[in-house]
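Marked as duplicate of an earlier ticket. Keeping the data here for the record.
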Amino acid sequence: MAFVTTSRTRPPSIWQGIGLALCGTLLITLGAKVQIPFWPVPMTLHTLSVFLVAVALGPRLGVAAMAAYLGAGAIGLPVFSGTPARGIGIAYIVGPTGGYLLGYLIASGLVGWLAAGRGWTGQVLSMLAGLAVVYVAGLAWLALFVPAPKLLAAGLSPFLLGDVVKVLLVATLVSGLSLLKGRTQ
């Protein structure tokens, strides 16, 4: 957990952990709201926000933040991209983007775990592994809504380059913040 614990600090208390997870949930929500409309899957800053939370907070708090985000959306809060116009609650979750949402939940734990204690390259590789999980889950679910010949054009090709850039940005941001944190201690 890059920012929460180091060899010189204690793990966060339960209340600090809840606060950090809720802040992560808010960041993920903001990432969902910044979008370029595509159909059936919008282009957002989801990847950037989910992976930033996972790398910065680690696997447990990263998953907690993503689970809280999904829970808030499931009960009808307009946290998802395009909500409420594109639907809310469970109806949105089981729509075309549902697999990506599940993929983000799984990837947040995987990325947080793989990135822990790693440098820039290790963080990039961990996020690329997480991105693969997001795309596999997302495309598998999207296949229920989009014909097979159009699947990659609808759910992968328009997003791949942008997601790789987001991964590089997150690794650079986290590495830079770690350097700044090291200088202030």
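See parent ticket for discussion. The helical segments are 14-33, 46-57, 59-74, 89-93, 98-115, 120-142, 151-155, 157-184.
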